[in-house]
Amino acid sequence: MLNYIWSGLIVASLVFALWYDLGDLAADRYRNGQALPVDVVVPSTYLPDARTVDVTIQVDPADYQAFYGTEAAPATGSYGGTLLQTAEGRQLRFDATESLPELFATIATQSQSNDGGLQGTLVDFGPPTGSTTLPATVRFERVRFVKMNAISQAALDFATTAAEIALGLIGVLALFLGLLKIGEEAGIIHALVRLVRPVLKPLFPEIPEDHPALGMIALNLTANVFGLGNAATPFGIKAMEQLQELNPTEDTATNSMVMLLAINTASVQIMPPVLLLALLGLQINQLIFAIIITTGLSLVIAIAATKIYGRFPGSRASDPHRVAE
Questions:
Q1: Could you say which of 162, 190, 249, 288 has the lowest number of CB atoms within 10 Å?
Q2: Three-class DSSP category at 285
Q3: CA-CA-CA-CA torsion sign (130, 133, 139, 141)
Q4: Is there a single domain that holds both residue 134 and residue 249?
């Protein structure tokens, strides 16, 4: 089901992006093929045959607004840049460190130099005639399908991130699942089951009293309580695998599986997560009681919502254990 949801979201985003981009092309928002008036301030020692020249690029806010048909104006009309002069022509490059207005920043994604700065071809630029401020026009590369390209790039970036996260979890899973196997062989898991049975049995009545799934659930919840997210993941996966062994169907979650997922979603934590400690340091002490109260309330709401939902006629009719009976 999640695959269909994500596929639908991606298709919907692409359709919206295509509609948005076609609107940009129809309105010619980026003035493709047209040249923007600018002033290029060259040094007094400017040589027309020099390959690169450090310049200052001045964009009149009124010209910018009239050219692009927008009410937004650049915060500053002066930008550092470089004039590149070759046999093929002259290029004007904005410094990559400059803060550009929104339209320039978007154009820069399609028309940029090797260092990532906005660049365009100079038109109507002549040699200096006694002044260091030379009028000219600059034509940028054509800009098309900005949103489509952004969504496609984001999809590729997140696919890379997902692969990196998955590879990073291999070591964590191997470590804690190995410790779980040692604990099972040593009888620690069974001892833990007997210890937590009075607390967890009312929440998971479908699980047999001595089943190791109770121990996995206890380890998962303990890891969450102490903010050990990496440790909670393999414990939760193992708990779900063992709950699935008790499930008489393959494609419908039992009440115990729903309860475990709801409690994990509530994410009860007494100890702050490592990320908050790294970001806030000692200031985390000001939030610790708020964290405990919030997570405690979320736990109560998650348990109550799961119990109430399980009593609905539709939920009772689809309960795998009732169907099996």
A1: 162
A2: helix
A3: positive
A4: no
43 and 117 co-located in one domain? yes
Q: Which of 124, 142, 160 is the last residue of a domain?
A: 142
Cα 258–Cα 261–Cα 263 angle in degrees, nearest 5: 110
How would you class 122 by CB atoms within 10 Å of its CB: exposed for 0-12, middle for 13-18, buried for 19 or more? buried
Residue by residue, DSSP assigns 184-206 as: HHHTHHHHHHHHHHHHHTTT-TT
- The answer to whether 246 and 207 are in contact (CB under 8 A) is yes
Indicate if 191 and 316 belong to the same structural domain: yes
Alpha helices in 204-254, H assignment, sequence order: 213-225, 229-245
For residue range 43-82, list pLDDT tens digits in order. 888 887 888 888 898 998 888 888 888 888 887 788 988 8
Rounded Cα distance, 140 and 123, in Å: 11
Contact 21, 144 (CB under 8 A): yes
Q: What share of the chain is helix, strand, coil (3-state, %, to 5)?
A: 55, 15, 30
| Residue 21 forms part of a structural domain | no
Work out the widest C-alpha separation in the chain, in whole angstroms. 97
Query: Which two tokens mark 133?
Result: 């401020």
**pTM exceeding the 0.70 threshold for the entire prediction:** no
State how far the Cα of 148 lies from the Cα of 14, in Å rounded to an integer: 6
